[in-house]
Write the structure tokens for this entry.
Amino acid sequence: MINVKKTLFYQGINLFWSEIKEFLITLGNIGKDFVRTIKAMSTLRVDRKTLIEQCSRFSVDSLPITLTIVAMTSIIIAMQIAPELAKQGAGNYVGSLSALVMVRELSAIMSGFAIISMIGSSYASEIASMAVTEQISAMKVLRVDPVEYLIVPRFLSGVIMMPFVVVVSTFCGLVCAAVISNITAEITYLNFINSMWHGLFVKDIFVALLKSSFFGGTIALISCSCGYSTRGGALEVGISTTRAVVWSFVAIAIWDYIFASVFYL
Amino acid sequence: MGIEVKNLTKEFNNKKVLNNISFKVEDGETLGVVGFSGSGKSTLLKIICGLLYPNSGEIITPPDADIAMTFQYSALFDFLTVYENIAFPLVERKEFRGKYSKEELKQIVAQKLKIVGLQGIEDKYPSELSGGMQKRVGFARAIVTNPKIILYDEPTAGLDPVSSTLIENYIVELKKELNASCLVVTHQLSTIKRATDKAIMLYEGEIVYKGSTQELLEGKNPYTHQFVTASIKGPMQIKSL
């Protein structure tokens, strides 16, 4: 009985240690790939065609799902708060509250989640597939830097296009909130817009854009890095994709906390 | 000058995969590298082309020698067309960027495709080609920079006998065309016979035979005898099965 307990204890310790090791290896790979990406970017040579393709993929291709998620979240929040605030005689604050919630928080984080599931996962799986089918090795043998060719355009597209996605989704979310507030609590559009401008500051917009740029870069980097370090076969491609999604979720949640602490505490 | 490998050793997890390997391949010569699975053949190629670092030893090549490698499963970029695959090093490699016009690139790609007996498939994607055609496109991509050293990793694996012969003929032709030093890692006796001039045999990371292809196929050495007769009994024990 004692031996069984001991064995289970050691198995638990081993499992815990292997998880810690895996965590540190992934963190190390992401850090290494970040340094390589910055180094490759310092040559200021980015293939314009590839960059435009990746930008289009990151923004235009992801917009339908991003807008749907942000619009639905915004509608649900407006449905919950507009009638309640109107009942309390605070209907004038629905616009400012919606704008504050959307611009400061929801639009960026919900867009981030949508981008992770749609773009991040595809970055990770396609680069992982390339790694396990020796396409990345072939690139190295042909003396083309895979980081410069594969990661840099994706990283840049994330940094550049995420603010665009967030601006469009915020606009869409606020329009939805205005319509729902009008339907459910009879708050006029003019009232909603006036209230919205009272609640928002330039700083909020600046922070939202900066934050979304960080989100975009982080999602692209983590997804590419997880794909790039894949070894093995189809099973490992799946594991890398899952790892990219989980790490990206956690990373943008941490960034969100850091931005909130730095700019709003 | 060719390529010279001196006292090469490679370890993975304290296990020697290659132990003190030395050989030389002259210009216009093809060396076959044979051995059982897990004997270190592919590791040797990966070290020569720079994908892996050795623990010790050296590889001597002419200064600025271009080393090309063809992969067992072709490793064509599946998101690019045949034309884009072959032109890839000329478009993306630092020293060639902007050097060739679109017209020149088209001509070079067409010429390389002609050498490997494939014409008019520039717009196809790798997934639209047969295994043998993919290998030949891989050859065309490898030789597009006119390399002086060409490494072939299992060039005929998984192909039917006729396609294998075709590939073996191209290996011989490419060597003549470029006067290159070639290394062919293979399991297939037909490939060793038709495409190589001399051969080494690896077992447990060490060279157990070094000599002419003819002698290897005669099987006078107990190791080569076991290999060419495909016998289970002999000095080599298969541990990976």
User: Anything to note?
Assistant: The longest strand of chain B covers residues 15-25. The mean pLDDT of chain B is 90. Chain B has eight helices and nine strands. Helices of chain B lie at 41-48, 82-92, 102-115, 131-143, 161-178, 189-195, 213-218, 222-228.
